[in-house]
Amino acid sequence: MTMSFSAPLVEIQSLHKSYGPNIQVLKGLDIEMKPGERVVVIGPSGGGKSTLLRVMMGLERIDRGSISFGGKPYISSDGADKKTQIDTEVRRSIGMVFQHYTLFPHLSVIQNLILAPCKVRGEAKASATKRAQALLERFGLGAKANAYPAQLSGGQKQRVAIARALMLDPKLMLFDEVTSALDPELVAEVEQVILQLAAQDMPMMIVTHDMWFAKNIASRVIFCAGGVVVEDGPPEQVLGSPKEERTREFIDRVFHIRH
Ligand SMILES: Nc1ncnc2c1ncn2[C@@H]1O[C@H](COP(=O)(O)OP(=O)(O)OP(=O)(O)O)[C@@H](O)[C@H]1O
User: Fold this and answer.
1) Domain for residue 173, yes or no?
2) Domain assignment of residue 160, yes or no
3) ipTM for the predicted complex
């Protein structure tokens, strides 16, 4: 009998993070993610979901714990001197898209896309431009290469932000409520782009308040509350199957559904 072992892509161990002395947000979080998994993180507001992604991206220091990527620890702190060690080389293999686009307003779409590859990686402008144009075409934005962010809809801006993150060939994508700021009619176009990436087996960790999206994208759902993982399993287990839905109260609390 052959057995297949899949080494973890991401290993988060005993992650502790507080803001100042009084706001303890992550209280010993343990998460293991395998290659190809699409992990949706849900939980009550203020539970630390965004903080988790920001920490994974090296944007916040941690108090204690470690995160490994591809078997290499790249963020760690032993808690002794509150210093967080970050291996930026490893961290660069992770891309993140935020709720509020964070495009450079003074740069055109194509300039937004090629900036990091040219500056960080020293890629030639012509090669980066060619890759950028191909990505824009793929996301239905081919005609917007020379537009500025202010000339785009929210959905278009968010698709540009995703394309920009992909320019650095990430091995893992983090999405933090990327559709929360969008008008309802623009949500689907952004979710389609992420579903497209999922179909190509891009590993991803997604924080979302969109129940439909969570069910459609997740291969696994993690429910975080009180700074720890409370539930972790397949979507039908954590979110409830169509036949056996979670209580209305659970759904409302976690997905911010307004009546
Ligand atoms: N820079 C900061 N300084 C101080 N407190 C912060 C900071 N960022 C977040 N917090 C606090 O940390 C807690 C967790 O915030 P976080 O944004 O990670 O939660 P969340 O689960 O993503 O919430 P939501 O679902 O509402 O987006 C909250 O109480 C928040 O007010």
Assistant:
1) yes
2) yes
3) 0.96
